[in-house]
Q: What sequence folds into this?
């Protein structure tokens, strides 16, 4: 049976599942596949060439609501307005920074405003700017984030933000995660790493295979690759990725790497020529991923598993009475 939550009602979804707007990975094909299967697909941020290509795909092929995600600290207002005017996404998600400068443009375009938060101060800010949906991201998530646990973040943000619907993100890759999120007071989930291991994701085959082969302890939250790539991410946010040889060499020497521009040059040259592995952003939920599937199959399986999990929990409660 389809779930009915504030999220499904807002976007007319069959399933309370949103695919994360993973930069460089969540392209138009993935977003469209998720939306066409009954969830809400989000395209990840990128430069204008990336956005033009991927948003054209989703705009042409999605048959229901879809959206796009931006990094609040990195995007400019002109780009947000251009996307809203040119492609008319149903939702815009803002993450990692103050969403306020973009709120008026999103509202004027008639799009729903989603704001991802990593702590309670950010959650209060999201409420203050009038977010339609708040995404509470725990530190288990792949890619950039902070340190709070999903299990404690979600219910406290749900209480703080009520009646604004809250989504759980971080460490969710199957129906049990969706069932748990609903029990914690969320209106649905945002899933990232599980959708990386799909045929529609913009990912090298070896990277998808690495996600399938990995276990949670193979991931680490750090700044190593941001330093090596000279990426200007705000220092508040670390990034969870799969450990590799470069990380193992530098994980306890971040300050040393920051000062060693020659080492950064060598890394960038090696990645450009295929001599070193680029980071594979992935969350602790890799333990729950064993196959590379189509996005629609992933979505349907999560929903089916959640229904089973909730039914099992209800039966146990009855049995214990």
A:
């Amino acid at each position: 049976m389809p779930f009915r939550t504030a999220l499904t009602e807002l976007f007319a979804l069959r399933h309370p599942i949103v695919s994360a707007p993973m930069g460089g990975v969540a392209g138009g094909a993935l977003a469209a596949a998720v939306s066409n299967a009954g969830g809400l697909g989000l395209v990840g941020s990128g430069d204008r060439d990336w956005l033009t290509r991927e948003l054209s795909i989703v705009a042409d092929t999605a048959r229901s609501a879809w959206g796009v995600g931006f990094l609040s600290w990195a995007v400019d207002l002109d780009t947000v307005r251009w996307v809203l005017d040119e492609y008319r996404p149903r939702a815009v998600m803002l993450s990692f920074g103050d969403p306020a400068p973009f709120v008026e443009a999103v509202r004027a375009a008639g799009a729903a405003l989603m704001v991802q938060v990593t702590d309670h101060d950010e959650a209060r800010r999201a409420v203050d700017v009038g977010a339609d949906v708040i995404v509470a991201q725990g530190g288990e998530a792949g890619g950039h984030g902070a340190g709070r646990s999903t299990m404690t973040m979600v219910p406290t943000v749900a209480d703080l933000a009520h009646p604004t619907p809250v989504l759980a993100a971080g460490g969710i890759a199957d129906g049990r995660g969706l069932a748990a999120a609903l029990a914690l007071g969320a209106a649905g989930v945002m899933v990232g790493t599980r959708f990386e291991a799909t045929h529609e994701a913009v990912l090298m085959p070896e990277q998808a295979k690495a996600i399938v082969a990995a276990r949670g302890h193979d991931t680490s939250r750090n700044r190593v690759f941001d330093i090596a790539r000279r990426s200007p991410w705000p220092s508040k946010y670390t990034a969870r990725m799969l450990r590799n040889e470069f990380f193992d060499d530098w994980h306890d020497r971040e300050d040393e790497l920051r000062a060693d521009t020659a080492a950064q040059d060598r890394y960038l040259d090696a990645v450009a020529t295929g001599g070193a592995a680029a980071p594979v952003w992935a969350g602790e939920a890799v333990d729950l991923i064993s196959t590379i599937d189509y996005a629609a199959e992933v979505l349907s399986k999560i929903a089916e598993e959640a229904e089973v999990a909730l039914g099992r929990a209800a039966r146990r409660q009855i049995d214990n009475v």
